[in-house]
Amino acid sequence: MDQTKAKTIGEAMADGRWSDVLAHVSLSVTAHVPAVGTLKGVDGLATFLLETEAKTDDGEHFELIDTLVGERYVALYFHITAERSGRPPLNNLTLHLARIEDDHIAEIWFHNFDGPAVAEFWA
């Protein structure tokens, strides 16, 4: 995956165009999400995305800060904010590290810079 394609995926995430993002994900993707666990398959990932959006007042807001591209891995660095009734606002820097296979995202690890605050927001 090249820098342009990685940035396009990150921008689609920032715009909430999840169908565009999922088009770049392997059907058998594995996603490792802190405090949630391991999600299997594109359907598992899509369900997670819809559930997190439904829990917020008006969705998560992604700001793409940077992309890093290697031979087999891509890192998308985001500032993510969200609001949820009765909770302090989410204000998190996160790194989504993706393993690339056949030009598709085969595995993803979510790394939150403030894991306890993120877990509290979603609990």
Which structural category fits the helices and strands? alpha+beta
Residue-averaged pLDDT: 95
* Structural domain count: 1
**Number of E-state strands:** 6
- Per the CATH scheme, the topology name is Nuclear Transport Factor 2, Chain: A
From the alpha carbons, calculate the radius of gyration and give it in angstroms. 14 Å
The termini sit apart by 35 Å
Q: List SSEs in N-to-C order.
A: HHEEHEEEEH
Largest sheet: 6 strands, mixed
Q: Percent of residues in beta strands?
A: 35-45%
Q: Helix count?
A: 4
Helix content: 25-40%
Annotated CATH architecture: Roll
CATH class: Alpha Beta
Q: Order of strands across the widest beta sheet?
A: 2-1-6-5-4-3
Gross geometry: globular
- Spans of at least 5 consecutive residues whose pLDDT stays below 50 are none
